[in-house]
Amino acid sequence: MGKKLITLREINRMYAEGIRELYVNDKVIITPGARDFAHDKGFRVIYGVGEDAPKEDVKSKIDLLLQQQYQVLDQELRRLLVEKILEKLKNHS
Question: What is the DSSP string of 23-89?
Answer without folding.
Answer: EE-TTEEE-HHHHHHHHHTT-EEEES-STTS-TT-HHHHHHHHHHHTT----HHHHHHHHHHHHHHH
